[in-house]
């Protein structure tokens, strides 16, 4: 497994940010990884005809090369509740190399009914063990192992990706820091009733996008946004109908959650009143929750007047720090958020689990734009917006 | 917001799910975990291997069993105390009538085809049950809400017709690989092993087709005691050699396009096929394989012309040796390995001839089977959104209904695009009573033409009843007596103006589908001339327009449809529609124009046939949201 993991790390973890960029011309000559359906794809040594039959519909979507990268990836999932169930199911179905689950709690009656990987007979067992048994049946090709240890004590080097769900900020921050400095892509996700978030810190991540070439001007090399740089482009020969496709290689630079949490809104939003009004009030609420937890040893606000008042103050402060219009944060929203802290409801975890797994799959495959860096889901409004929350002066 | 009231509404709700496939598995799980207690689920399909990468309620050992039943059992394992009622049946079966639909509080669609979607839409309208409709393709998907009288119905916006190609492009001037696939699948495969009585354009391409028609009839028949390899080579030389050479003799055709080169089997395979076929001992007809018998393993390889030629001959041979009983009745099926091998090889040989790049079996299978990309993640996302809308519908939370589009990747800074539902389209023939207008030659068109081309093909009715005033001209049903059946059969063959109650200009014809409880009125206008190119049916239906078809991208995943980061990013949802539609429908490409010389050729072909070849979706998880150009002009629901 260590071998596999090492191979994948090369693929997933991008070259260090400070490596000197090659001259553009040289970049163009070295063709970036070819696209999904490219006729030059050859069968990677590992994939069998049975696997092609099983994964037929998805290989048609992301290509055999991405499937091979998935096949050699090893993913660590921390905490497996309703959201963890969804993420694990999606990744195991997709055919990842291996899944390791850390969860030190035992299955209770309360878990039943919201988690499809466990049933009555699992009550009293370790939650990861109980879920793992069913995950193995879901796709016998994917080894699923469990660890009953403190996630902060785990050696991350053998994994190609870390996903943490349903944790307080007091665990998310040190985990994220550990992953970031170990050059491991990291996702955090959680849900609160009808609301949820996905945060990504992929370090320095390189990926390609293939698209029809609409005109004769290739995409320009260089910075595209505060976080994104175009590092190479190439173009396919014209087909019989005269169409060509352009393959663009881009690099995204990420920051850890602790920095994202003190960062302002992106300029294109903060400078535009209409866009500001469209920002989800979930953002100040999440920041308030995390600040509250930091101040109270990881405990969320309880349902007492003092905690609720303190939380409301924090949320108002965060909203002001973000320069959001005061009317954005409604009392009804605050109430709905507070009443359902860490509550998992199935439609929301289905959405978030799908969004996380899809981003993980694309990130491993090195294709498509990943989340940069905070996805906010509001199930009441069916909104899922992505905000790039980065410090104004990028950290070195 | 998961309030007590919400929970109560959910617990007492009775829900009908149509479809237990990609979306269905996710939906059934999410409904059960959301505490829905009474769920009915209809699906006519059985489980296949290629379902297992996303339909997570199914295991290898379930292959061949009913999706609805296995899904029910799987969900009851983790949620034992709820009621799930499975039906292994077609939703169009008569038992699922309006009364059946009326017992439900909401209907949730996870369907894979337009036909069934339209049918369910009509039953929901008739039964006045709200419908939540959905679809996915690759990373794209959508959920829409349809409540009679409040929002548009599923058919208020015309749906794109399946892609068709002009006959001449397929028979004489292919320019893309998909044209070769259509030729191999719908013409050559159908001619050699399909129904011999069906019309087939295979030989309609040469200028003197008429004079040699008698002779060409026999070419495709295997002669008595003819050696199977010699037969294969004779077919090979005829379609890839002789026919191309004959086409080349018509200089007009090639003025503006590259001349194809004839290919003969003796040049590609000078020696006979060796006896490699020892390996192939499979009893299951679907496991017989030319690749296996030739020792080729990788479906992703692109075969050389020689390899394609070997596969061509070997697969034809295997059809005659191992599956002789089926010959004459075969239709192309993407899960039939031998059929896919034959079509891949034939399409590639034709592509070589026309200088079109060759493709692997894996790619050819995707094009020939019109396979839709499908992944678990999108289905899970869409299932979550369906349940969210279903809860709003059950609470009658009208102001918060949303049509939600799941976008590809968050370059645009949003993963979802919620749009307020639109008002019903006042001219929708399904949910309003606006009459349609039909221009038709009442002295030449038969009642059968009207029934087949308009009532069934365009209106999607299954059990039509046609009336002119009080006179019943046609109906179908099990309870008709023989005289009536004979009478209606006779009417079908009559010209409209000569029916017992003549249909002429100004007549109003009423068509009803009793099962769908749908009634449409047609104002008939007599017209003599029709443009053969634009109106191949010889009639023109207006008052309801079918959107022009969007060409499916031949061999690129829709997932690659480009979004550029410098495109406008934060236009509010409603204004963003047209752009999103582009994203959602994949790339729109112009069909390359047929060279002038060839076009003249075509006209003569088309006058004979007036027929277009069709590619029809038949896979699950298919998306129905392509092209919706009118969407941004419509009024929002207040």
TrEMBL record, chain A:
Give the range the annotation lists for the signal sequence. none
User: Where is this gene product found?
Assistant: Nucleus
An example molecular function term from Gene Ontology annotations: SUMO activating enzyme activity
Q: Keywords in alphabetical order, please.
A: Nucleus, Ubl conjugation pathway
Residue ranges of the TM segments: none
Originating organism: Carpinus fangiana
Checking Pfam families in the record gives: ThiF
Q: Where is the composition biased (Low complexity)?
A: 24-34
Region (Disordered), start-end ranges:
1-47
Q: What is the protein's given name? A: Ubiquitin-like 1-activating enzyme E1A
Locate the THIF-type NAD/FAD binding fold domain: which residues?
Answer: 55-380
One annotated Gene Ontology cellular component of this protein = cytoplasm
UniProtKB/TrEMBL annotation, chain B:
Indicate the segments forming the THIF-type NAD/FAD binding fold domain, all copies. 5-429
Record-annotated Ubiquitin/SUMO-activating enzyme ubiquitin-like domain positions: 438-530
Q: Name one GO molecular function term.
A: metal ion binding
Q: What is this protein called?
A: SUMO-activating enzyme subunit
Read off the PANTHER family from this record: SUMO-ACTIVATING ENZYME SUBUNIT 2, UBIQUITIN-ACTIVATING ENZYME E1
Q: How the protein assembles, per its UniProt entry? A: Heterodimer.
Q: Which residues bind Zn(2+)?
A: 153, 156, 428, 431
Report the pathway entry. Protein modification; protein sumoylation
Q: Name its cellular compartments.
A: Nucleus
Active-site residues? 168
According to its UniProt record, which protein family does this protein belong to? Belongs to the ubiquitin-activating E1 family.
Q: Which UniProt keywords apply?
A: ATP-binding, Metal-binding, Nucleotide-binding, Nucleus, Transferase, Ubl conjugation pathway, Zinc
Give the region (Disordered) as residue ranges.
Answer: 550-598
Q: Which GO terms describe its cellular component?
A: cytoplasm; SUMO activating enzyme complex
Report the record's Gene Ontology biological process terms.
protein sumoylation
Positions with a binding annotation for ATP: 19-24, 43, 51-54, 67, 112-117
Q: What is its main location?
A: nucleus
Coiled coil segments of this chain: none
* Residue ranges annotated for the Ubiquitin-activating enzyme SCCH domain, each copy included: 315-365
């Amino acid at each position: 497994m260590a071998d596999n993991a090492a191979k994948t790390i090369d693929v997933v973890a991008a070259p260090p940010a400070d490596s000197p960029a090659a001259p553009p011309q040289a970049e163009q000559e070295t063709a970036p990884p070819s696209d999904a359906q490219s006729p030059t794809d050859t069968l990677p040594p590992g994939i069998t005809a049975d696997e092609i039959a099983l994964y037929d519909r998805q290989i048609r979507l992301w290509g055999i090369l991405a499937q091979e990268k998935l096949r050699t990836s090893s993913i660590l999932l921390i905490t497996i509740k309703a959201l963890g169930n969804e993420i694990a199911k999606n990744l195991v179905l997709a055919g990842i190399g291996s899944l390791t689950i850390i969860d030190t709690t035992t299955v209770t009656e309360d878990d039943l009914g919201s988690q499809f990987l466990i049933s009555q007979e699992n009550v009293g067992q370790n939650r990861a063990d109980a879920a793992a048994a069913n995950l193995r049946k879901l796709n016998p090709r994917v080894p699923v192992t469990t660890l009953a240890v403190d996630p902060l004590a785990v050696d991350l080097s053998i994994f190609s990706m870390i996903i943490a769900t349903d944790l307080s900020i007091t665990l998310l921050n040190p985990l994220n820091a550990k992953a970031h400095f170990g050059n491991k892509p990291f996702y955090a996700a959680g849900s609160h009733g009808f609301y949820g978030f996905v945060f990504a810190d992929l370090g320095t991540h390189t990926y390609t996008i293939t698209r029809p070439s609409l005109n004769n001007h290739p995409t320009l090399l260089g910075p595209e946004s505060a976080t994104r740089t175009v590092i190479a482009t190439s173009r396919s020969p014209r087909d019989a109908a005269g169409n060509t496709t352009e393959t663009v290689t881009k690099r995204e630079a990420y920051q850890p959650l602790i920095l994202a949490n003190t960062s302002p809104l992106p300029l294109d939003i903060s400078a535009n009143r209409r866009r500001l009004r469209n920002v989800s009030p979930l953002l100040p609420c999440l920041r308030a929750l995390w600040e509250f937890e930091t101040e109270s040893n990881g405990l969320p606000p309880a349902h007492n007047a003092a905690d609720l008042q303190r939380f409301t103050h924090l949320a108002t402060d965060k909203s002001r720090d973000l320069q959001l219009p005061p009317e954005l944060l409604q009392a009804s929203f605050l109430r709905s958020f507070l009443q359902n802290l860490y509550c998992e409801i199935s439609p929301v975890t289905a959405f978030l689990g799908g969004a996380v797994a899809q981003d993980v799959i694309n990130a491993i495959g090195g294709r498509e734009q990943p989340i940069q860096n905070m996805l906010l889901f509001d199930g009441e409004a069916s909104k899922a917006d992505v905000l790039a929350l980065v410090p104004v002066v990028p950290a070195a | 917001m998961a309030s007590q009231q919400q929970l109560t509404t959910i617990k007492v709700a009775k829900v009908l799910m149509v479809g237990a496939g990609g979306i269905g598995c996710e939906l059934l799980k999410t409904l059960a975990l959301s505490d829905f207690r009474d769920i009915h689920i209809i699906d006519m399909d059985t489980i296949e291997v290629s379902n297992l990468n996303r339909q997570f309620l199914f295991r290898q050992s379930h292959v061949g069993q009913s999706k609805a039943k296995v899904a029910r059992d799987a969900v009851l394992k983790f949620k034992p105390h709820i009621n799930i009622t499975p039906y292994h049946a077609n939703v169009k079966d008569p038992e699922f009538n309006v009364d059946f639909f009326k017992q439900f509080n909401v209907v949730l669609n996870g369907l894979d085809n337009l036909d069934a979607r339209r049918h369910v839409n009509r039953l929901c309208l008739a039964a006045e049950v709200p419908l939540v409709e959905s679809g996915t393709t690759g990373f794209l998907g959508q959920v829409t809400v349809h409540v009679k009288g409040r929002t548009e119905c599923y058919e208020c916006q015309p749906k794109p017709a399946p892609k068709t190609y002009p006959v001449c492009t397929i028979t004489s001037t292919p320019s893309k690989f998909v044209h070769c696939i259509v030729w191999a699948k719908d013409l050559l495969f159908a001619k050699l092993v399909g129904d011999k009585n069906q019309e087939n354009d295979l030989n309609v391409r040469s200028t003197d087709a008429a004079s040699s028609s008698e002779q060409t009839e026999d070419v495709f028949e295997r002669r008595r005691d003819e050696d199977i390899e010699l037969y294969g080579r004779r077919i090979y030389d005829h379609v890839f050699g002789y026919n191309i050479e004959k086409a080349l003799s018509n200089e007009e055709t090639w003025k503006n396009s590259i001349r194809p080169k004839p290919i003969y089997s003796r040049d590609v395979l000078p020696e006979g096929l060796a006896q490699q076929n020892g390996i192939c001992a499979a009893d299951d007809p679907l496991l017989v394989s030319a690749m296996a018998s030739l020792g080729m393993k990788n479906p992703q390889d692109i075969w050389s012309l020689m390899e394609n030629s070997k596969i061509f001959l070997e697969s034809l041979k295997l059809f005659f040796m191992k599956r002789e009983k089926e010959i004459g009745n075969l239709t192309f099926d993407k899960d039939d390995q031998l059929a896919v091998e034959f079509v891949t090889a034939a399409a590639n040989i034709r592509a070589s001839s026309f200088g079109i790049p060759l493709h692997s079996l894996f790619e050819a299978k995707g094009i020939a089977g019109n396979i839709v990309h499908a992944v678990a993640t999108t289905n899970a996302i869409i299932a979550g959104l369906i349940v969210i809308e279903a809860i709003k519908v059950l609470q009658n939370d009208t102001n918060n209904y949303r049509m939600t589009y799941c976008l590809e990747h968050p370059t645009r800074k949003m993963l979802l695009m919620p749009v307020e539902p639109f008002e019903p389209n006042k001219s929708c023939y399904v949910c309003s009573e606006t009459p349609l207008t039909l221009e038709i030659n009442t002295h030449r068109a038969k009642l059968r033409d009207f029934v087949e081309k308009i009532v069934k093909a365009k209106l999607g009715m299954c059990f039509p009843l046609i009336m002119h005033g009080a006179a019943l001209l046609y109906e179908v049903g099990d309870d008709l007596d023989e005289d009536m059946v004979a009478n209606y059969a006779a009417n079908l063959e009559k010209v409209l103006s000569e029916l017992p109650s003549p249909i002429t200009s100004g007549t109003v014809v009423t068509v009803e589908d009793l099962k769908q409880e749908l009634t449409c009125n047609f104002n008939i206008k007599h017209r003599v001339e029709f443009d053969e190119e634009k109106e191949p049916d010889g009639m023109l239906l207006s008052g309801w327009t079918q959107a022009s078809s969007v060409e499916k991208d031949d061999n690129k995943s829709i997932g690659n449809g480009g979004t550029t980061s410098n495109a406008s990013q934060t236009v509010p949802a409603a204004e963003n529609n047209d752009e999103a539609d582009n994203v959602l429908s994949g790339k729109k490409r112009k069909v390359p124009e047929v060279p002038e010389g060839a076009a003249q050729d075509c006209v003569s072909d088309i006058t004979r046939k007036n027929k277009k070849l069709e590619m029809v979706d038949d896979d699950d998880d298919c998306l129905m949201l392509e092209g919706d150009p009118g969407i941004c002009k419509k009024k929002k629901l207040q």
